[in-house]
């Protein structure tokens, strides 16, 4: 049999070896293209998935399951905990004023700070919050219903003016003028005070007759939304104008008056104002109430908790000293809090450490995405700078999260695996001139590298066989 094999090899021509290497190069190239397509679409290697799912059980291997996540968003039931969360967009609780802040940026730079997608989401919010089925009975509300659908800002402002001519107690018309016509925060506050006066009157009227019919109940919900929105924006005006204690009182009163509206995340406005006052004990009290496993987490909650833990040790923290003597209990708690925050949103540290430039935050954010990181850092960077050594501690420890969780897109320690759809949603929310952060990027699977190498190697052999046929035949026989 050995002699037969020898005779067979001696009769093979260079053309056979060339055809063999070309065919193997072509087949490995097809496998590589399929592997790459499968990875881009499903996020896993097809060969690796088949080997783990079907071959490992046959040879007695046991697949190690990732650790169970311990934090979920509110409203999720048990079956949905096993699946990847969808990329839900949230209203930014600290969104700026269009006329007084976003428009000012446009005038100075000539760049649009808001995307059409973001503004379209806001238009939908306004229609949901500020309109109801009974608007057709009141001419001013009918005009405002059309105003919220207008794309042109000047058309919206003109419609709001028209609504006030029909009824000078139209609260939603004052809201629109405060958001879009006012060019300063002082002017916006004046409009919101007029909206508050009108809104309270309408709200009391709706309370007296809300039980008469479903239509009256819907009107009460609308009037409640308007009143809460106006009070919140007035508190934000006071915060921007330097009246911090007044803003804190308004936010606390609002949360007591409407405790069921916790999903509006008014506590995030309160946290930022308390940090400005350096009332860290009050900040801790708010965190104790809202940093709960059953509530949707946010970068504001996770990073504020990390900031308070870091504040206890950051002033005396030195990486050289810590490496020699080890970390104390307080330092371990601070580092763990930073790891927890980074696992929730890994984009934030680069903005806090000023490794990446900030832009104006959008009106909507994607939790755990770059848009949320921009919104958090825009308002909270000054609070980190105020605490001596806090940014140094963050700089020394934040990247350790990815040594602890090497594949955050596939695994999770405290939270769900990092959603793979965040990049697409963030590109819709953030302006085109901003470089969207896609860190951490998922590493390519081994089999994509392997098939790419195999394709390249066989293609090189085919080229050498074509150029040096006699030498390659001798090499193959040897």
Automatic annotation (TrEMBL):
The keyword Transmembrane applies. This is Suppressor of tumorigenicity 7 protein-like. Belongs to the ST7 family. Its main location: membrane. Keywords: Membrane, Transmembrane, Transmembrane helix. InterPro entries: ST7, TPR-like_helical_dom_sf. One of its GO terms (cellular component) is membrane. PANTHER family: SUPPRESSION OF TUMORIGENICITY 7, SUPPRESSOR OF TUMORIGENICITY 7 PROTEIN-LIKE. The chain crosses the membrane at residues 16-37. It is found in: Membrane. CDD domains: ST7 (cd11557). Pfam families: ST7. It is a multi-pass membrane protein.
């Amino acid at each position: 049999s050995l002699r037969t094999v020898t005779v067979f090899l001696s009769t093979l021509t260079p053309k056979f070896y060339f055809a063999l290497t070309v065919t193997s190069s072509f087949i490995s190239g097809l496998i590589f293209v399929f592997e790459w397509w499968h990875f881009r679409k499903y996020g896993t290697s097809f060969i690796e998935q088949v080997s783990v799912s079907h071959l490992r059980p046959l040879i007695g291997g046991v697949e190690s399951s990732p650790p169970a996540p311990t934090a979920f968003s509110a409203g999720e039931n048990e079956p949905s905990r096993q699946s990847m969360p969808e990329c839900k967009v949230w209203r930014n609780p600290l969104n700026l004023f269009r006329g007084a802040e976003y428009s000012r940026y446009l005038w100075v730079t000539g760049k649009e700070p808001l995307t059409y997608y973001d503004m379209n989401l806001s238009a939908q919010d306004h229609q949901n919050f500020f309109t109801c089925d009974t608007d057709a009975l009141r001419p001013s509300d009918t005009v405002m219903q059309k105003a919220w659908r207008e794309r042109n800002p000047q058309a919206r402002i003109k419609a709001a003016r028209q609504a006030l001519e029909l009824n000078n107690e139209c609260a939603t018309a004052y809201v629109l003028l405060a958001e879009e016509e006012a060019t300063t925060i002082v002017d916006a506050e004046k409009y919101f005070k007029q909206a508050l006066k009108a809104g309270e009157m309408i709200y009391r009227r709706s309370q007296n007759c809300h039980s008469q019919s479903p239509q009256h109940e819907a009107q009460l919900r609308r009037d409640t939304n308007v009143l809460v929105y106006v009070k919140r924006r007035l508190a934000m005006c006071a915060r921007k104008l330097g009246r911090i204690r007044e803003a804190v009182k308004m936010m606390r009163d609002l949360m007591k008056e409407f405790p069921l509206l916790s999903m509006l995340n008014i506590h995030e406005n309160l946290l930022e104002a308390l940090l400005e006052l350096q009332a860290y004990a009050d900040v801790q009290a708010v965190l104790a109430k809202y940093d709960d496993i059953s509530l949707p987490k946010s970068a504001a909650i996770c990073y504020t908790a990390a900031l308070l833990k870091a504040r206890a040790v950051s002033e005396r923290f030195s990486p050289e000293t810590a490496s020699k003597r080890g970390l104390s209990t307080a330092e371990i708690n601070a580092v763990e809090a930073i790891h927890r925050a980074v696992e929730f949103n890994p984009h934030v540290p680069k903005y806090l450490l000023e490794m990446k430039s900030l832009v104006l935050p959008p009106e909507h954010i994607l939790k755990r995405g770059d848009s949320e990181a921009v919104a958090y850092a825009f308002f909270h960077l000054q609070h980190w700078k105020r605490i001596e050594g806090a940014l140094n501690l963050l700089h020394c420890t934040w990247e350790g999260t990815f040594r602890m969780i090497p594949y955050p897109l596939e695994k999770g320690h405290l939270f769900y695996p990092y959603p793979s759809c965040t990049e697409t949603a963030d590109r819709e929310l953030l302006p085109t001139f901003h470089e969207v952060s896609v860190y951490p990027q998922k590493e390519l699977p081994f089999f994509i590298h392997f098939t790419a190498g195999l394709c390249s190697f066989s293609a090189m052999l085919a080229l050498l066989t074509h150029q040096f046929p006699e030498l390659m035949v001798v090499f193959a026989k040897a």
